[in-house]
Write a structure and sequence with these properties.
By secondary structure, the chain is of the alpha/beta class. It is built from five helices and six strands; from the N terminus they run E-E-H-E-H-H-E-H-H-E-E.
Length: 131
């Protein structure tokens, strides 16, 4: 398991679960297909290369309609490259907190996983633990 730095966007609580998700745009292409993973009690990992806050808000709304935010055990955000370049990180944090509060889900964030050249690999399908 590769260690990466993270911070909490909500109050910290112990979190353990299998990681699912990935690039939000690509992940949403699986919605409604037999390839959509079981999300219940899993750690939902989301990151994006492109997309300003309006596009990411639309992706989050669609993801919410799948039940992903309601059913996951926790949410882990990776890099949102365009959001960071456009200085919309605060808006992104507020947006994910909206869903987290609605469903009482813990949210963590890491800047080490995403599309940058120095990004670390992420173990989708593996069990992760955060304290």
């Amino acid at each position: 398991m590769i260690a990466f730095h993270y911070c909490w966007l909500t109050s910290p609580v112990p979190v353990t679960g299998i990681a699912v998700g990935g690039n939000i745009r690509c992940f949403l292409k699986l919605a409604g297909t037999p390839y959509w993973p079981e999300i219940t009690n899993k750690i939902l990992f989301l990151e994006a290369n492109g997309g300003k806050i309006e596009k990411i808000a639309a992706y989050f709304a669609q993801l919410d309609q799948t039940g992903a935010f309601k059913n996951c055990g926790a949410i882990l955000l990776g890099q949102f490259t365009t959001i960071q370049a456009e200085k919309q990180t605060e808006q992104l944090d507020e947006l994910i907190r909206f869903y987290a509060e609605q469903y009482a889900k813990p949210v963590l964030k890491t800047e080490q996983i995403g599309h940058s050249t120095d990004s670390l690999p992420f173990p989708i399908g593996e069990e992760l633990s955060f304290v």
